[in-house]
Please model this.
Amino acid sequence: MNKRFMIWENPRDAVLSIVFILMALGCMNVFSASFVRADAMFHDSYYFLKRYLMWGALGLVNMWLIGFKLNYKIFLSRRFINILCTITFLLLLAVDVVGVVVNGSRRWLYIAGVSLQPSELAKVVEVMLAASFLGQRLKENKPISLTRYVSAKAMFVAGVFGVLIFKQPDMGTMGIVVALMLVMYVIAGIPVSQIVKVVGAGIVGLIGLALLAPYRVQRFLSWLDPWKDAQGSGYQLAQSILAIGSGGFVGVPWGQGSSKFFYLPEAHTDFAFAIFCQEWGFMGALLLIALFVIFARALIRIAGHTKDARGFLLVAGATCLLVGQSAANMAMVCGLLPVIGVPLMFISYGGTSMVINMICIGLVISVYHDECRREKMEERVAQGLPPIEHHQLRVVTSHGVRRGE
Model:
């Protein structure tokens, strides 16, 4: 687990380094993309940057506590998972009752002046649920199937979350929540025949839900040809493509991108990648994509060396959530996917998503440390040495364990 990973001593160091690099780039991009809007709305050009830093600090504290001070197995206990699922369910219900409507959707709760998006919490909760439930079944060599309720309970919970999110309405996030749980079942090893049936049923269901609302059909048609109605339904995607194209090879001078001047809606949130491309150009976008690829490789390395079934599924689920959602955002902004309203990790502004991303990374680091302890114990047993106490192993792994130690 502690073998060298590219230029880093181990994959954990690679993950942490890339997190801090992405946060630094995110600070610059969020400020550049939001200072015009912030000044117009709040008379404070630094409004969104301040809140980005606030949420980032909170996220880092959570990542440090979970990754370096606690064991991930605490969070996968049945009691803790049941509490988390209940809280998430109640928060999603609360959104439907007292949530705040923004741009025609009721997705946020305002508590003590702070906005929270419970659908973001639902994503990490279902990853933890799947890791706990499916991992335990794998550990006990029990069959995993979507056709039997006893092994499909986690999928049922994801379906309930999906229905509540769909009512907001947020079909894109609903699709992510359901698809993420399905991917977890695929990773856990459900039969291929069930995968084909579920995917087919999902496609039919999505088409049916889209046809129920004319605006969803119009959004799909605008994705196919945004220039047909570039001043109407295709405006946002057309402006995004124009922003990306205007960046050229090396981008315009930082802070001078024109799209942030009320041309591109959601320039600092869902479409922050377009502003990044405009001001950093093709080379900057390539660098950002390379960082995400290295980040994904580091997470996959950790997952591949994790022997505990629950830990493996937890890292695999976190990888799918973090990297998959980021890839979907970049594809959406470039017009390769329909507009689905997902943020780009650390580059987009979003308080709840920032903290949730940090929690996911903290869980991955906790799994990494637990595997380091296990390997160290096995080495000592193989050498005929007495085992190290748990607190001593925590100190060793927090500084990294190298071969030969």
Summary: The chain is about 70% helix and 5% strand. The chain has one domain: 11-398. The first strand starts at residue 100 and ends at 102.
